[in-house]
Amino acid sequence: MAKIKHNNFIDTVDEMLATAKNEGTIHLYAEDKIFTGRNLKINGKELFHFATTSYLGLEYEARLKEAAISAISKYGTQFPLSKTYISHPLYHELETKIEAMYGVPGIVTKNSTLGHFAVIPTAIRDEDGVLLDHQVHWSVQNACQLLKLRGIPVEMIRHNNLQMLEEKIKELSSKCKKIWYMADGVYSMFGDYAPISDLLELCKKYAQLQLYFDDVHGMSWKGKNGTGYVLDILKELPENIMIVGTLSKTFGASGAVFITSDTKLRNRIKNFGGPLTFSAQLEPASVAAASASADIHLSAEITILQEELAQKIGYFNSLIKATSLPMIAPNSSPVFFLGTAMPLTAYRLVQRLFNEGYFVNPGLYPAVPVKNSGIRITVSRNNQEEDIKGLVQALEYHFPKALEETSNTLHQVSRAFGIPEFSEKKEKLIPQSSLNLQYETSIQQVDKATWNALLGGQSTFDWDGLCFLENAFKNSADPENNWSFHYYLISDKNDVPLLATFFTFGLWKDDLLAPESVSQQLEEKRIRDPLYLTSKVLGMGSLFTEGNHCYINTAHPLSKNAIILLLEQVEMLHQNLNSSMLVLRDFDEDIQLNRLFHNQGFIKINMPESCIIKDNSWNTTEEFAATLSARSRKHFVKEILPFEKAFEIIIKEQLTEDEIAQGYNLYKNVKNNNYAVNNFTYSIDVFKKMVANTHWEFILLHLKDTENLQNENPLVGILFCYKNTGKTYVPSLIGMDYAVPKKFSLYRQLLFQGIKRANELGYKKIDFGITATFEKRKLGGKVIPKVAYIQAKDNFSMEFMGTMQTK
């Protein structure tokens, strides 16, 4: 298989969060001398605190602080021993109180993340399977990575999608003893709930189903004894349900607690649960504070505290309902999410609220899809009614200001989140008096000379090349290769070109750029369901082309305005076509573009490197060899040139029906052997239309030495080459017989013959495309790094593929 450099998820996240940091909205430092829970001091400014995850404010309770201080005085700052050997003296008291709260013994862990790593690999057996809710907490998803190493199936369903869950249960039921569904009780970003009652009905229907709830955001503020949202619904805990609670966040101390009524499972986890055995236990101060908090939870006081918080949540909700602010997933939890769609709007709104004296968090990728950015607001018992009223007034004033400042609209926000409109549709576009926009759906409607002057010198998307692409892929009977075409040209009022590009809309495989092992697994599923995990995508350029698909006149003062106008236009088209993803691709790395696209709701990913030969001018084979590096020259002279005579090389502008069929089969050989870029297989009709187009020619290699092959002088290799009118030669597709012995270096020979033919025709530039850059570099190709910017309606496919085993 051809190897490519796949995108690194960590790099993408790092770049996104680095932008948020530069905007002054994350990685901040509190400057307070004393915390009260109501205020925070940041950059010398006093702010009302609406970002805590301690909804009852128990960390400031005197009884917890005094217990922690006393424990340090008596027992020191830590008890550095594994709990497997001996527990701290205060542990027994805490565990007794936890059992009183829940009615069953609990397992206390250092924190919920380490707890998941302790519990999940122990609870899930090799014969089990796991289904993850798309929005279940990262710590749960990460712990499940360990299960894949044991061959345990781990799959993902869309958020709260019970139909999809049931389909997956049916799929796993014949091969798994137990099927674990893992979800949050209360989700940390939008504050919405797991559909527990419906899940219980599924449990009645499928005896294999086990439920695992991370309920750390439902803890303390809900339920009898503050045992959380999930247990408040369940009332009693059946053996097929496990709950994860927290001793930090709203509980006010530190640590986590895992609750199961399955005694055997609980004992197995306590006997050997990874971090429970090999990590240090909670510090004495944390145990003591948790024990003091448990006393409050076991008293009538917890109900009073819950009611106080519920009153403030209700007050916030009543104020919000009187506004047109787009709150996502309205509910009665302490967590609220105000949608902004674009990250830049979120940054600006956070900054505006800072200036007004309110601290909130931006909700950003990867916690939410990049175009579902917004403001995460939490209400705590420490917030006063006047603080809450002031925040809502500030939001009502500054939200439309932030929208206007970032060329955003309430309509765009509603559209991005799929929520009802709060006001009439008003699209804010750059005044047409300053920019002229031409939008067409066929290259025939675009002036040929203008297009070729801007984008004509590369790949197969000069004007004539796009005529071919439209003929081959527009209105195709093959749904996998049926594309619509969309052309944009933007100029200033004097008709000076500012921007030109084209998009295609069609089906993409979601694993287009995934690791090969992921694509191999998905292709097995596509034997039964050819369109499994595919999406409708509006993408710059096309899946047939590569290169710089977007001309930008960067020297013009209105170039940025032109880009923003393009983004507004394609965003509307993206929505009208109901595509799942919008892709801007094949850009050079550029700091200014990175910031602009990020702020408009795109994330950057690395594209496979492309390869070109810029100056293919030479007169003899010796001169060509001299252009190569010493190492590549040695490789060429010893491994490629001597075998040229083993082939009969024929260059044709027309192919017979038999040659088309043979060439197509050779193309499919390569396609089926290469998942580095996993797109759909083109139909044979595409190749027939190549033959009928005067801009295509074909380099055929017949092997003269047929000692190990059945046919005499069989066709063993073919290059499908496009002759760009801008004097660029494009060996666009390749076909090979993998039965040809390795000594003939068939692939390298095909590359060399493409270079040789381009030289004969006087083409100085060769676009070699993506993949196999190592081989192309040996023949003088220059590797060109490229990036793309994507905007997906949700992260499901990406995260689903993240649950699959890779090699």
Structural write-up:
The structure is a single chain. The protein is α+β, with helices and mostly antiparallel strands. Among the domains are: 31-58 and 303-417, Aspartate Aminotransferase, domain 1 (Alpha-Beta Complex), CATH 3.90.1150.10; 62-297, Type I PLP-dependent aspartate aminotransferase-like (Major domain) (Aspartate Aminotransferase, domain 2, 3-Layer(aba) Sandwich), CATH 3.40.640; 612-787, Gcn5-related N-acetyltransferase (GNAT) (Aminopeptidase, 3-Layer(aba) Sandwich). The protein has 27 helices and 27 strands. Strands 15, 16, 17, 18, 19, 20, 21, 22, 23, 24, 25, 26 and 27 form a 13-stranded mixed beta sheet that branches. It has a seven-stranded mixed beta sheet with strand order 3-9-8-7-6-4-5, with helices on both faces. A hairpin with a 4-residue loop joins strand 16 and strand 17 (497-509). Helix 3 (89-102) packs parallel to helix 11 (284-297), helix 12 runs parallel beside helix 14 (385-405) and helix 13 (343-356) crosses helix 14. The protein starts with 8 loop residues before the first helix and ends in a 5-residue tail after the last helix. The relative contact order is 0.10.
